[in-house]
Amino acid sequence: MSVLSMIEGIVYEVMKFLKSGNADEAKESHFLELLVKKPEEFTRLVVILKMAHEAVREDKFITKRSIYYSNPILFKRQSIIDPLLSKICKELSLPRCALKINASSKLIVYGDIYLGIGYESDVIKRNNLGIPESLFKSGYEVIISECLPQFILIIEKDTIFRKLLNEKFYEKFKPCLLVTAKGYPDLITRKFLAQINCKHPNIPIIGLFDADPHGINVFCTYKYGTMNPMMQNENGNPISIPNLQLCGLLPTEISSDII
Q1: What's the chain's Rg over C-alpha atoms?
Q2: For residue 254, which phi and psi values (nearest 5 degrees)?
Q3: Does the global pTM surpass 0.70?
Q4: 47: Cβ–Cβ under 8 A, 6 or more apart, which residues?
Q5: How many Å apart are CA 149 and CA 128, to the nearest integer?
Q6: Vertex 9, ends 7 and 11: CA angle to 5°?
Q7: Residue 156's pLDDT band (boundaries 50, 70, 90)?
Q8: What is the Cα–Cα distance from 190 to 221, expressed in whole angstroms?
Q9: What are 176-201's pLDDT values in tens digits?
């Protein structure tokens, strides 16, 4: 069943329930139960489903931010959209990307890379740029430029990313590619790197993360993905970067005299 059909199926259930008024039907569906018990939350879900339906039909991505600003009075604050999306994804057994809904991208890259999608293309050459979300339509391709990087360095912190640029890291080790998501990786960053890992498995991918539990957690999220259905790919599988290697600093490398 297509994503459009699944969304339309929910609408059909709601219309059928409103016509019959059968209270027993509400017990069998989470959406109908919300309609009865929490009409305001149900209304928010309907707005999200409507926007997702339009995005899937037109094959374009929308952001959580655009959902919020479509009706800020209804949503009140942007933070409530995530749990609503989780409910929709769970009910439909779909990852968030199947609904064409992304968070605003945090991805920044620096290096020589060619990104192509259909007839559109962007060349990112020794420049730190966010990746346009239009590049993440269905079936997009990431193509490394002719000058293949010797390695890709994923940097957890934006401050360290900037410091490496200021220290002329690229000029010393080029050709290479520096990547950051400015903290915990968003879906777009992970899809971008997973695509490169899949298309170019021989390019080493190295991660530079804090030597603390949070840093290790960020590393594991990049490398292994997550079972959260909202953060999986179109096939419902974790978005992973199996070739990612931890550069350090490791907790075992820190002297007890320093702590």
Answers
A1: 21
A2: -90, 125
A3: no
A4: 67, 70, 71, 74, 75
A5: 16
A6: 75
A7: very high
A8: 9
A9: 899 999 888 888 888 889 888 888 89
